[in-house]
Each structure stands twice: as structure tokens, then as C-alpha cells.
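Q: Given only this backbone (207 positions), what sequence would you predict?
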């Protein structure tokens, strides 16, 4: 069982928390984590790129010259791909890049990502995180007290607009909730800051 230190907003150690090894102590599976990241990025693609084919560009209705006797190669339209201002051959068209992973793979990927952060001592647990007003400076002071000077992901147990908006303008700082936590966000940040109540919810879902 892995034990992590629990800190308050002033950066003082208040207690220790024993993490569930089924969630935070497994051997990370790099292949599955990679599959989860590729899946996430593919699902983010809009797939709205589009090129015009020879049937979609304007003009080209008239045969540019007669079929034989000119010395030129035969041509049927000035909008064929080989012509300037012609259509694009085999160009991209709107499509859906998204696909799904099965539930078992998703669970292993999430556990692997969380376990890797614990193993590398890049996960920090907060006793609580509260803001009385929308104030970026207060959030900066909290992060400074916790010695956070790199990209960090703050995981909340529920939506807290005070915290989310206070952290929104800080470069490299992202906030999320347990129900929207994803493998990509965990691996894309150097530090994982999890509120104590959020740890309990994560263990409840994935244990």
C-alpha cells in the first residue's frame, strides 16, 4: 500500500493517506496508455478539412482543344488535377476520425496513468481547496506554497467555479473533475494535484 503526504493550502503537511493499490499501485502498462492517448487525440479531431474535386471547381465545361491533330496530349477539361486551378485528386474530405476503446482497456489505462504518477512521486494530495472569490493571485499563492512551478493538473471532486476560474488564466495549470478525468490530461502534466475527496471518488470508481 502506497502512502502519500496530505498538504493544506499553505503547503504544510497535515497527514498521510494510504492509497488503494488496485488503482494507484499497479504496474503501468505503457502500450495501453499509448493506445488511450492516441484514441483521445483521434477523438478530438474535427475532420472538417475538405478539398474541391474536379466536379466541384468552377469552369472546365468546354474541351480545351480538339482530340487529334494538335500535337498536344488529349484533354477533356481544364479542371482536371494536372491543370492549374484544377480540382484535387484524392484530397481529404470531411470524415469522422473517432473510435472507441473497450471498457477494460480504458480502466487499465487510467490505473496505469495514476500509478505512474504515484511511482514517480508526481502526485500530491490536498486536504481541501477552497476559494472565497474569483482571484487568480490567490491561486498563484497556493501553487507557490505547494512548490508547483511546472504544468499541473488539479483534480476536484466536483465542479467549483471559484477554483476553475481562479486557475483559468495561469499558464500550464488545468482543472478537471473526477468524472471528466482522462489519461491524456494526467500524462500531459508534470504534477497531479488531487483533492482528498477526489481520491476517494477515484478509488470508488476504479477499485
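A: Predicted residues:
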Amino acid at each position: 500500500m502506497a502512502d502519500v503526504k496530505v498538504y493544506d493550502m499553505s503547503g504544510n503537511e497535515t497527514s498521510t493517506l494510504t492509497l488503494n493499490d488496485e488503482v494507484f499501485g499497479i504496474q503501468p502498462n505503457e502500450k495501453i496508455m499509448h493506445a488511450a492517448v492516441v484514441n483521445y487525440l483521434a477523438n478530438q479531431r474535427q475532420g472538417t478539412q475538405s478539398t474541391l474535386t474536379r466536379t466541384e471547381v468552377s469552369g472546365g465545361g468546354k474541351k480545351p482543344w480538339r482530340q487529334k491533330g494538335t500535337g498536344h496530349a488529349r484533354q477533356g477539361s481544364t479542371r482536371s488535377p494536372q491543370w492549374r486551378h484544377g480540382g484535387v485528386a484524392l484530397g481529404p474530405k470531411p470524415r469522422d476520425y473517432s473510435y472507441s476503446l473497450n471498457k477494460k482497456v480504458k480502466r487499465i489505462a487510467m490505473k496505469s496513468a495514476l500509478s505512474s504518477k504515484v511511482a514517480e512521486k508526481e502526485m500530491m494530495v490536498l486536504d481541501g481547496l477552497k476559494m472565497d472569490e474569483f482571484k487568480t493571485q490567490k491561486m498563484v499563492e497556493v501553487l507557490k506554497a505547494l512548490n508547483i512551478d511546472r504544468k499541473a493538473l488539479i483534480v476536484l471532486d466536483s465542479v467549483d467555479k471559484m477554483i476553475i476560474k481562479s486557475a483559468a488564466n495561469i499558464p500550464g495549470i488545468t482543472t478537471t473533475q473526477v468524472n471528466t478525468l482522462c489519461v491524456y490530461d494526467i500524462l500531459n502534466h508534470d504534477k497531479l494535484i488531487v483533492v482528498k475527496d477526489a481520491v476517494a471518488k477515484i478509488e470508488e470508481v476504479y477499485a
